[in-house]
Amino acid sequence: MKLSRPVSWFLLAFGVWSWVIWATFVKNLYKDGSGLAFDSAGDPTAYFWVHLTLAVVSFVLGTVVGVIGLRGLRALRRTS
User: Fold this and answer.
1) Which of 40, 64, 73, 74 has its CB 3.0 to 4.6 Å from that of 8, i.e. a possible disulfide?
2) pLDDT (tens digit, 9 = 90+) per residue, 20-73?
């Protein structure tokens, strides 16, 4: 299957966007001072672990989607 150039660029951009958004979220999660991510003893809460898991899954999916887009662009370059 061949991907079109716009679809390949969209997938690559989506992968990069996913990394930027979730990296920012994880950074803010670690800095959380509201008591949601860490309890008064400084231990991670369930909120922290759930959101960290969501971030890790999004990193993996963003990477996979971005790689598919990159491979689509490379394949188009070889055929043109």
Assistant:
1) 73
2) 999 999 999 999 888 899 999 999 999 999 999 999 999 999 999 999 999 999
Q: Any idea which residue has 């990394």 for tokens?
A: 19
Distance set, CA 65 to CA 13, 25, 40, 70 (Å)? 9, 19, 39, 9
Between CA 6 and CA 72 the distance in angstroms is 10
Report DSSP state, residue 44: B
Number of other residues whose CB lies within 10 A of the CB of residue 80: 6
Dig out the tokens for 60 from the structure.
């993996």
DSSP E strand stretches across 1-80? none
